[in-house]
Records
---
Amino acid sequence: MSETAEHHDDHHPPKYYVKIWVILLVLLTVSIVGPMIGIKWLTLITAFGIALVKAGMVCAYFMHLNIERKVAWYILCATLLLLLVFFTGVAPDVMKPSGTNWQSLYHEPTEEESMVHHGDEHAEDAHHGDEDAKHDDGHDEHSEDEHHDADSHDEGH
Amino acid sequence: MSFQVPIATNRSATGIPTSRLAVWWILASEVVIFGGLIMCYLMFRLHHESWGFEAAHTNPIAGGVNTFVLLTSSLFVVLAHQAAEAKETDKSVRYIWFTIFGGFIFMMVKAYEYTTEITHGYTMFKSVFWSFYYTATGLHGFHVMAGMFIMWMISRDVKKGKNLHRVEIIGIYWHFVDVVWIFLFPLLYIAK
């Protein structure tokens, strides 16, 4: 059985694909403009709902999954199922980290803390410089700083 | 002893040509790689409000431009496939090169973004969000570059009228790269 004989029996004119592309661009515009309005549910629909539609269109019309044999679907769906297993297995631990046998040291950064301020890089350099100096003179605050750094690195916020 | 094409090359037990079946398997493994990353991202993003603050520092215009570029390059590669099916090799090669150019523009925009972010202090080590950002977009960028390289190799064959079916194969791969970006774009650039 030759490979060419098995090719998709798909003879759409180029115009057909250009039409799909135009629809995708319209959806892209909606997915950018929608979240600008600032309504949470509208953001979810326009950003993620439309992403699903766009991905579906690319898969169906550009990748020709709409006319592909079922076995390709089975292969892809099996991996999507594995992802679902992964998510349901891990999510309870990651997303509900409450418990009585351990203490969470995590500190949720504020909006202010998530920013990098001008001059921070220099400040950071200076900080490291200070640390080196402290290593030399054995300053008392050194252990506190080190503890703080270790916390922030461990938590990785 | 003359060279023989391996039996697996022409065998088609599933009704799908072996090469196309192989690319579906590759994409299945890619679904797990990128899907796993995206799932992890979602878990942290839903649980930690601060990730929204971090995402506010990505550049949605650059992300939007790159989405446009990838969607357009997907159109080019599907047109290259159409031309290859019609045995119009010159046209097919032209569209393949348009696609490669699209990939090049994508990488240039990405390089601009990385440069801006890193020089502003948003490096891979700033927080877990930025680690995810650089890992996901970096891995995706690597796939874009791999696709560009394979397309260049295929274009050389197509020019000679050989292995035209490979245009469809690389096309499927390229569309998948596009699909991954379609999900990364709202996750990293839009949801603030």
Note: The CA atoms of residues 14 and 20 of chain A lie 10 Å apart.
---
Amino acid sequence: MAKTILTISVVDDVYYYMEIERQPSGLFPHTPQTATTPQALLAACRKADEIYINSVFPSALYQWGVFPKVAKKHLYTLVGRDAHEKVHIPERLYVEYKVIKDVMEGGASKYQLAYTGIPEQDVLSIWNQFADVRNKVKHYTTTPVSIATAINTIDKPGDSFMSVVVGEKSSIIQITNKDGVVEVARSVPVGFTKGEISSDPAVSANFAQDLDREISMTITFFKQEFRRKSPGLVYMLGNPHLEFIAGNNPIATLQGMTVKYVLQPANVQGMTPEQFSENIQLLGNVYNTDDFNFIPKREHVARRVSAAVNAAYAAAAAAIVLALIWAWFLTSENSLAARKYTDTLNDHRNMEKRVAALREDFRVLSPVIGWRDLYENHLKNKPDWNMFLSEVAILIPDEIIIKSMQVKPDRNNTRRWKTLMAGTVNARNWQEALSLIRVFGGKLQSSPLYKVEDIKYSPDEMKAGTKSFDFQMDLNLLPRGSKNES
Amino acid sequence: MNRRTVYLIVCILVLVQIFIYCMTQKNNTDLYHRQTVQIERNIRSLNAEEAQLKRKIALVDNIIKTIPVNLLSGFEDPEKGFAEFLDYLNNPIVEELRVSIGLTEAQKFHSDPVALHKTRLNFKFRFLSTYEAERFFNFLLHQDKYPVQVEDMKITRSSHKANDTEVSLDVALYIPAKLQLPSNI
């Protein structure tokens, strides 16, 4: 997906800027433009997706040093203190460093690092101009850092090199190590117009002479600081006339050194190498790495907070969506449960009505059990009162006369009436009487209405001549058909 | 406090509201479930009771079929029922046998086994043949209108006159109250 990059370079309070389309096939730079205030390039800032800024920062301090191996936050303090000692200014310095390598010093392993320090006021004076679009700013560094990184990335010199970027009013002379880290950088008040070269040869000669002097001073300073010979490779960039000027006005300091006047970027489309080299200050921004980024720390904090807030927004949104899904699920479940509860409650009420009706029916009917008892115990199982005497009359022998009968219900058995029968037997002797009683008892026993329980026969007169003998018989008078049951 | 923070707080408040709503819904659902289970348990209990009542009613229904209808119909008014019984006794056989009727115990209410009024009566008569006596017994004891139960019967042959026999019969007359049955029985 294409992105619009806005690269800005601040030189001598002038804002040079250029829009670049970053596409998968490469970078497509637009025409460079100039503005005297950041408000003038506000439209371009709003249109851009990413903004890269560099500034010459004449007050910037480029230093190398050896520091003990301590924690990062302590190392930052040590570097800051070292920078303060170097510049002797009261105000706070913004310092960014890069660890170059581990070195042994005094028998201890230490860091060799390069750092750049800029007074806070200088950093913020530009940064605050872009407060409205600060979220888009990806990198904010010094112009020498951008130039060094760009040359190292594009040309890959493999050794330290010098670069001279000539502006219309000032120039930047810097020496960079083989890894693209600035060792020495100077902004010198030597400039040359990008327009037509003046017909007066003295203008070019004076420029060449001034530039030669500044390069010489830079090399001298470099040799003093780093105790190494000067680089053998020089990039002369920023002005299309430099090769012509140097050809007509040889720069003595550069004698014996390889001089390159153009860079050949591989991924920049629609722009000649000469145009690229002329705008190296602007285009160098897109080669910046994470090193020497002077975006204020509080902005980093603000961005982290913003990222955290965004993450919190995302989490809250996800949580709300999940909670809404959960709520929908629970509401559906609750509706189903409520419907089932209502249905069950209706079933329960209907069932209660039915059972209540049955209870009432049973309550009304339950006395019937008493009626059954009344009927079966007192009325149903009655003997054949209309023939119980006839039955005796049929079975009784002529010799036996019944004198009395008493019939009473058996209190222990409602299907039985206790009957006490008293009578007299007319016989020739007591043995014959006994025989007749036995016969009568046997007949009664065989009757469906009677059951013989006991016979009491004890004649007082045993002698011959007695004609009658009394007896008693205990019987059970039974309802018809119940004899076999008992 | 910036706007984004306010929005975030609003989001969190919305989330809390949704969470509270969800918890309320969940609690309500749990409550519905618990009450439904309780009601279903009651329904099962009522189902068992319904089946038991139906069995009991069917049993009582069968009992009713074994009891004579005229007995179940009972009497609206016990005094009137007793008077009707006396009217029933006003029969030629009573006069033929010269049956003397005595009230041995006045009408008394009993609640067991059913609501009824019980009256004790004594009948005395003499007979020469068992046929005569059994006619009376058939008249008094083998009718379905008035529940009469024999409590004591003494039959004594006269020592002076052949075949002359005296009967003393103690009976209980039951005048049950009318049974109110449901229309569907």
Note: Chain B has a mean pLDDT of 89.
